[in-house]
Specification:
The complex is a heterodimer of chains A (256) and B (659).
Chain A (H helix, E strand, L loop, with lengths): L5 E9 L8 E10 L5 H14 L22 E2 L2 E2 L21 E5 L8 E3 L2 E2 L2 H8 L21 H11 L6 H5 L6 H12 L8 H14 L10 H5 L7 H16 L5
Parallel strand pairs in A: 1-5
Antiparallel strand pairs in A: 1-2, 3-4, 3-5, 6-7
Helix pairs in contact in A: 2-6, 3-5, 5-6, 5-8, 6-8
Chain B lengths: L12 H11 L5 H4 L3 E5 L3 H13 L2 E5 L17 E2 L11 H11 L6 H20 L25 E2 L5 H18 L3 E4 L2 E9 L2 E9 L5 E5 L2 E4 L20 H8 L4 E2 L4 E7 L17 H4 L1 E5 L16 E2 L1 H5 L9 H13 L11 E4 L1 H14 L7 H27 L8 E10 L2 E2 L12 E3 L17 H21 L13 H20 L5 H15 L6 H21 L11 H25 L23 H4 L1 E8 L3 E8 L14
Parallel strand pairs in B: 1-2, 1-9, 2-5, 9-17
Antiparallel strand pairs in B: 3-4, 6-7, 7-8, 10-16, 10-18, 11-15, 12-13, 12-14, 14-15, 18-19
Helix pairs in contact in B: 1-5, 3-6, 3-13, 4-5, 5-13, 11-12, 15-16, 15-17, 16-17
Classes of the chains: A alpha+beta (256), B alpha+beta (659).
């Protein structure tokens, strides 16, 4: 099985379903290799649980390459664990020491209800995008791509905002459970591009309205979201969104 | 020799699609509103089709097993997307993209489909840019391109090393827009478990709500599967953990032929396996071969560090064997060449199952250019490396970070260690020119079908095909079928066909739960993967394949008597989900070996050791095997072969050469 020599104590949040009461449960793990990813360490735990006839810990994960945004563990009080700019699936056990105790909890936010164990429901994010996180262009309507030159700096800035993976770490770490970093990243991506201009002010109003309706908290400029974001999404996006939101009240002819 | 009809339109290759598009029957807007289409999968092929069909006015239901359509595995595609734009003025054209794709596929793809793909490729870039997809640009504000394997032009559009993510988020936005308008009903965390057929036509699906375990029946006038590839049959692959064959396999068991299952793509540049705990493999994009040189030491079992091996003791074996394409030979060729060197004892790293991918020469070259731009025409080496590293960082930063994260090594200082790994499956459900399977009303798009890549896919062509199918092909071709279905009223889901399909699905779930054996699902999956990789992997032979078939049959029997699935079927149960998928992978594994055994030739990703040239290149047998092998599922787990002859009327079939 595992080839390493780390011994660990895990305290893992177990909760049967949304209505059940959850609790931290202790597990001991031996012979963990420092080359394992954090999720592979959970694979080892689950294999042990299954072999003992117990139910494995349910956690979200898919690509295990840090891009799908599905993994979502709150590790020792930090979303995606102790390292900056990585997702849980890219966190490796060499970031921990033999003998460590590691506490693993789900994302906690009113808008992200727990589904089971470490899995939460992040569908609120999809609904915020559905409210306006797009450019209204039907298939087949596009002009030749190079008919619309976009300055490289601007394109790069849009790309940096677009790098958001929608994992929800920003919400999980925020004391207000605010989704401003996520929402502003999408708003910024489209506001920075010429294609996004026609719907710019309508978009910011609808997305912010949906964000509020989902029960996400407000932003108090703590900056934890930026510090914990695995993709380094910048707080500047929130400032840009706020400017657009304020401007929308004056500029936009349509109020949403 | 064909006994199946691919429904390729008559006429000149270059005008087939144009003519087809303008003559395909249409469905009028008021009828579209009552026609329902089910789309399973929300990756590039599924999301783009769902959004486009909804824009056209159809009632669409879309399903994905992830918690959001944005997480489909297309998101992980790194390097780029091909399009015949000729923005670089390097002689590219629709014909060249067509030709490169047919040749790259080792003359085992259908000419008409590939030409259509090349024709619509340019529209995809236009569409994505209009959606706000931030593709890479030059300082003049125009789109940038880079090179990929198997071509001599620069036609690959990209967004750093996250092209798949950006394209998928574009399609996802389009899809969410339709969801917001109520034109698409989205079912996340749902898994399709059965296709429902009424009077021989696909009329719906049975899906399991993965949160509650509830079994649901959904009607559709037509069903589209955009459910991705089956690389996880090998257990270790670059696919996401959840990627599976279940939807395609259930369709196969309901009569959809499975074509060329043995064509699997082993990608040459992946991070090597580090231990038994490994759960998946990570790709290092093919775009890195633009600027990286692949080498091994000239001396066998050389244990020196890469930096201690002088230039003249390095073997740049791709440049040596293939001077015309060098490090940019197609994936199958590059993978086999790496395996050959490692098998011969020249591999590097602790496991000796790795080769170097070295960026030093190009870092220095870029540095020189940057220094020169700044007016320094005689820069020292250190300056060159410093400036060049910044260029490399901008191009591939996220990939280098990922490498460092996984291996604990700094790739800016030491060469990457890489080894081939399972990445993509060219095989899939057989479809005709309309992308319809052999079950009427059941369509298949993207990686899940077999249609465009022959025996080997060229880099940056998967994104192209997924979006071509979803945005520009299926929305037209499905009209040919639906135009005849306008008088069909929605079939109530208490119809016996739905009841029966649900019983099949529930029967399997209950059986799995009640086996209560001693071994975990992963245990069986790993064993299956081991058999597949050893005997149906990068190199195959008759003896090994025959052994593999016996071993897989034994494994199947053991699985169904000894697997342990904890928990119940009426809750979120990830082990139950995996068990159903592994059960299907085991059956598919057997078919892959049968197909590989049937194909007594080597072509593309299918390399039979008995059939190679003196230089170790794949040796095709065009006389006997220029056909698509389309397998029909038969009672028990048996398969009957049907053949679709491949006719090459526009390209001269030749021994593939990249020398």
């Amino acid at each position: 099985m595992s080839t390493g020599n780390m011994n660990l104590t895990l305290k893992v949040w177990r909760q049967k379903n949304n209505n059940a009461k959850g609790a931290l449960v202790d597990y001991k793990l031996a012979d963990i290799s420092p080359d394992m990813s954090f999720l592979e360490m959970f694979d080892v735990l689950n294999e042990q649980l299954i072999n003992k006839g117990e139910e494995p810990v349910v956690f979200d994960h898919d690509c295990r390459e840090g891009i799908c945004g599905m993994c979502s563990m709150f590790i020792n009080g930090r979303p995606h664990g102790p390292k900056d700019l990585v997702t849980t699936c890219q966190l490796h056990m060499r970031s921990f020491k033999d003998g460590d105790t590691i506490v693993v909890e789900p994302w906690r936010a009113a808008a992200f209800p727990v589904v089971k164990d470490l899995t939460v429901d992040r569908s609120a994010f999809d609904r915020v995008i559905a409210a306006g996180g797009f450019i209204s262009v039907n298939t087949g309507n596009a002009q030749d791509a190079n008919n619309l030159p976009i300055p490289k700096m601007q394109a790069d800035a849009a790309f940096e905002a677009a790098a958001c993976i929608g994992c929800g770490a920003c919400v999980a770490t925020c004391k207000n459970a605010s989704a401003m970093l996520f929402v502003s990243a999408k708003i910024s991506q489209l506001a920075l591009l010429p294609q996004g201009q026609p719907e710019r002010y309508r978009r910011v109003q609808s997305m912010v309205a949906q964000m509020d309706a989902e029960g996400f908290g407000n932003c108090t400029n703590t900056g934890a979201c930026e510090a914990e974001c695995p993709k380094g999404i910048s707080l500047e996006n929130i400032a840009r969104m706020n400017r657009d939101f304020a401007s929308a009240k004056f500029i936009s002819e349509e109020t949403v | 020799m064909s006994d199946i009809n691919s429904n390729i339109p008559e006429g000149e290759l270059t005008s087939k699609w144009t003519k087809y598009k303008s003559s395909v029957p249409l469905v009028n807007p008021s009828n579209k509103r009552t026609i329902e289409v089910i789309i399973v999968g929300s990756g590039l092929a599924g999301a783009s089709a769902a959004a486009t069909l909804a824009e056209m006015g159809y009632k669409v239901k879309c399903f994905c097993f992830q918690d959001s359509p944005r997480r489909a595995h297309s998101i992980a595609a790194q390097g780029g997307i091909n399009a015949a734009k000729n923005y670089q003025n390097d002689g590219d054209s629709v014909y060249r993209l067509f030709y490169d794709t047919i040749k790259g596929g080792d003359y085992r793809a259908r000419e008409a489909n590939v030409h259509r793909l090349a024709e619509v490729s340019a529209n995809i870039i236009d569409q994505c840019v209009a959606q706000g997809v931030p593709l890479a640009r030059e300082y003049g504000g125009l789109l940038d391109n880079r090179s990929f394997g198997g071509t001599q032009v620069q036609r690959t559009f990209y967004a750093a090393g996250q092209t798949g993510q950006q394209l998928l988020l574009g399609a996802y936005s389009a899809l969410e827009r339709q969801i917001g308008m109520g034109k698409v009903e989205m079912y996340t965390r749902h898994e399709m478990l059965e296709v429902v057929k009424v009077d021989g036509k696909a009329r719906g699906i049975i899906a399991r709500n993965l949160i509650t375990g509830e079994i649901e029946r959904h009607f559709g006038h037509a069903v589209v599967l955009g459910t991705g590839g089956y690389g996880n049959v090998f257990y270790l692959s670059t696919n996401a953990m959840g990627s599976n064959v279940t939807a395609a396999w259930k369709a196969h068991k309901q009569g959809a032929y499975f074509a060329n299952p043995c064509y699997t793509q082993i990608h040459p540049t992946c991070i090597p396996v580090s231990g038994d705990h490994q759960s998946k493999l990570t790709l290092m994009s093919e775009s890195l071969r633009n600027d990286g040189r692949i080498w091994v030491p000239k001396k066998k079992d050389d244990n020196r560090k890469a930096s201690e091996i002088p230039e003249d003791e390095r073997d740049y074996y791709l440049e040596r064997r293939y001077p015309a394409f060098g490090n940019l030979v197609p994936r199958d060729v590059a993978s086999r060449a790496a395996k050959e060197r490692c098998d011969a004892g020249y591999g590097v790293g602790a496991s000796k199952l790795a080769v170097y991918l070295d960026f030093k020469a190009n870092t220095e070259r870029y540095g020189k250019i940057e220094a020169s731009k700044a007016g320094n025409h005689n820069p020292d080496k250190e300056t060159c490396m410093r400036l060049g590293t910044a260029v490399i960082k901008e191009k591939y930063g996220n990939l280098f970070d990922m490498y460092a994260q996984i291996t604990g090594e700094n790739p800016y200082e030491t060469p990457m260690r890489i080894y081939p790994a399972v990445h993509y499956t060219m095989g899939g459900l057989w479809v005709d020119y309309n992308l319809m399977t052999s079950v009427p009303g059941l369509y298949c798009t993207g990686e899940a079908n077999f249609s465009d890549h022959g025996a080997n896919r060229l880099g940056a062509s998967a994104l192209m095909q997924g979006l071509a199918d979803g945005y520009f092909v299926l929305p037209y071709t499905i009209g040919a079928y639906l135009s005849k279905e306008i008088s069909v009223k929605a079939i109530p889901t208490d119809h016996p066909a739905f009841v029966e399909a649900e019983e099949r699905a529930v029967g399997i779930l209950n059986t799995l739960i009640n086996i209560k054996g001693t071994k975990s699902v992963d245990h069986f999956h790993k064993r299956l993967g081991h058999i597949m990789w050893e005997k149906c992997g990068m190199a195959r032979n008759e003896k090994g394949l025959n052994e593999a078939i016996q071993e897989i049959r034994a494994l199947r029997a053991e699985f169904w008597s000894d697997v342990r699935v904890p928990g119940t079927a009426d809750e979120l149960n990830t082990e139950l989900e995996k068990a159903g998928r592994v059960a299907d992978f085991i059956e598919l594994g057997e078919l892959m070996c049968i197909d590989a055994l049937n194909r007594n030739e080597s072509c593309g990703g299918h390399f039979r050791e008995e059939y190679q040239t003196e230089e170790g290149e794949a040796l095709r047998d065009d006389e006997n095997y220029a056909y698509v092998a389309a397998w029909e599922f038969k009672e028990g787990v048996n398969f009957e072969l049907h053949k679709e002859e491949l006719k090459f009327e526009n390209i001269k079939v030749a021994q593939r050469s990249y020398k």
